[in-house]
Fold this sequence. Notes:
Distance between the termini: 70 Å
Order of helices and strands: HEEEEEHHEHEHEEHHHHHEHHEHHHE
Structural class: alpha/beta
Strand content: 5-15%
CATH topology: Rossmann fold
Strand order of the largest sheet: 6-5-7-10-11-12
Number of helices: 15
Radius of gyration: 22 Å
CATH architecture: 3-Layer(aba) Sandwich
CATH class: Alpha Beta
Amino acid sequence: MGLVAMGASILFAILALELVVRVTGLEGDFFFELDPAVGAIHIPGKRGWAVSPLGQQYVEINSHGYRGRDWSLEKPLGSYRIAILGDSFVEAFQIPLEGTFPARLEEALDRECGTGRKFEVLNFGVSGFGTGQELETLRLRVLPFKPDLVLLYFYGSNDIYDNSSELDVEPNRLHFMLGDDNRLVRLPFEVRDSELKRWLRHHSRLYLFVRDRIKRLVAVNRAMQVLHLMQEQADQDTAEQRAALRTLQNDRYHVPPSPALGRAWRLTEALLAETRRVSEQASARFALVIIPNKEEILDDGARPADVSGSWDFQQSLKSIDAICDRLALPCLDLVGPMRASKIPVDDLYIPNDGHWTAEGHTFVAAETLRFVRDWACDRGDSAQPAAGAMVGRDPSPPAP
């Protein structure tokens, strides 16, 4: 009888905590499932609530496993399709669908071009994706829709780490490596899951709340292991040098980068080259849009408190700019337009989150429109950046 009473008490406590998590909005619904082909997708047809510092946002996933309305596999006659690849910046669960930059870009193209074309901007963004997962998504899920233009939104603050099996703090992610002949090799990836975990993810926000916090602890532990490896590879022996590599995020500002980070950049360049090749082989243009973080926009030359030695706060942006030059890629670097804008940076990025606000999405849609207008409106290539040209780069930070 005592065991029955204890079991009932535990069950009651769990149900009470489940109710608290739901009512307070501490945790949203789960929208993802692992996929052996591309790493992960959203659950097709899933509807529910996502949680961010802006509050709860209702999210609908289409039948293909991506955010937005349903798309027909067959491209409508006379239409122009733009496929958007990226991570949580593109997915944009923080704001309503109609406020996301892919939705606003589609509206703007319909309004601006006046060519009688029908424009479709297809959002293939998935939170946590790196360039390798975006490459596989392009090959296996994007190309069947026959896009005319593929835009990859690159966020160097974490994409460079997500791409590297050495540096990634998420162990269950699809990765590539460079073989001895500098060719890309996809590393083995398999879905490891159970019916119980799947049921809990779909039905218990309390489980998701606890699970997310445990994953963060595991990620911190993994980050510490990675930092130890990087220190050994860079032959960092002094306490001061070890402190200089205290966080993965600040390591990308060191000059020169650590050997592991250098390998991650070379891998990223190969992934981008292959993404362009696959796009062009399918008769689609390919271009890159570079997403700065808030700190890179506001860089005033001051040294971050936990960075010592030789450093450059623009190092990550310079690295991806150099890749654009070497690969002759058309690239839009958003740091220049964001610095030149009269909109305060704090109005473009969500506080304590780092993703774009609705105003940020409106801004990015307008800059993307300027970048692709002549391609999409069929005005020829004369007004478009030549291959390898860097659009929007401005080395000067905004005045304080």
